[in-house]
Amino acid sequence: MTLKEILSMSQSDSAEAAFVNSLNAGNEKVAEPVIVDNEAEKVAQIDEEGRIFARAFIDELDKIAASKLEKMALNAPPFGLTPITPNSMVNNQVNPAVQLSVREDARGPEVDKVNAIITSLLQDITLPATKTYVHQKEQVMPAAPSPVMGQQGTVMEAAQAAEEAAAVKEEMARHASLDNSDVVAALYRDIFNS
Amino acid sequence: MSLLNTYENMQKQAAEQQEMSERVEVLNKFASLAAEELEAQYPGSWTKEDQYKLAAALIELAVAQEEQETEQQAKVAELCESAKIFAQEVWNNLEAIAAQNQ
For position A79, what pLDDT does the model report? Predict the structure, then answer.
């Protein structure tokens, strides 16, 4: 049977044609993409993994390159051994822009470190100055000392208030721990003794 | 009982005590958290049983999160390790090609 005959059969209304058509229909069904519910999730996960891989890959290449450069710098001959000739003075007068760029590259990490230290020091210095009395909605701001009240009285009152607050806090903590004891015991029994 | 056995028993008891106190501390934190949450949501109208249930649920959630985090960390570590090997191989190949060209 030739291909032409098969094609003509599929166009006729015979039983063979119906069979061929059903086969074709079946094949078409198989070829349809199977839609998975969590396909988007899978794609997102693969994308995430790819990003992590790429980042780690680039980091590693950076590290290798940095270590190679360091080795090359260590193996480079010291400047003192370079013979000084009359022409070398002329040759050393390179483009200042290029020189600056090279110096920046070579000392980049050090400069960055120094800048980071200076920034951190400056931040430490300015820290008290940047402190603001930002408070919660229901938080009560400490009242300003009255000009009539003496300094001694203010200090004593503040100390007394602090003592009272500490006592209340301690009492609350004790109360809370006492209250939790039976719940903690039940949790311990169920989790660790089961 | 020899002195050495006594010493070993004491060490064992101390370790057990330490472990127990650490566990109690963690459980106490969860119990306090549950109490605070219940008090915030239903002030004055919750029971010890509610507190127990919420604390147990919070512990379960924390354990599940920790397990998931550990799993993810392992996966990321594996990916990073693969990427490092891959990068090293790429670098070696590049160096070999450069050497050949020279």
Answer: 57
| B94 contacts in chain A (CB < 8 Å) | none
Check CB contact of B55 with chain A, cutoff 8 Å.
Answer: yes
Domain hosting B42: range is 3-101
Whether A180 sits inside 8 A of B80 (CB atoms) is no
Q: What is the mean pLDDT of residues A38-60?
A: 91
Residue B73: predicted pLDDT: 95
Picking from B23, B76, B86, the nearest residue to A188 by CB comes out as B23
Asked whether residue A137 carries a pLDDT value surpassing 50, the answer given is no
Q: Tell whether B82 lies on the interface with A, counting CB pairs under 8 A.
A: yes
Mean pLDDT calculated for residue range B58-64 = 95
Contact B31 A64 (CB under 8 A): no
For residue A132, give how far its alpha carbon lies from the nearest alpha carbon of chain B (Å).
28
Q: Taking CB atoms and an 8 Å limit, are A53 and B90 in contact across chains?
A: no
3-state secondary structure chain A: CCHHHHHHHHHCCCHHHHHHHHHHHHHHHHHCCCCCCCHHHHHHHHHHHHHHHHHHHHHHHHHHHHHHHHHHHHHCCCHHHCCCCHHHHHHCCCCHHHHHHHHHHHHHHHHHHHHHHHHHHHHHHHHHHHCCCCCCCCCCCCCCCCCCCCHHHHHHHHHHHHHHHHHHHHHHHHHHHHHHHHHHHHHHHHHHCC
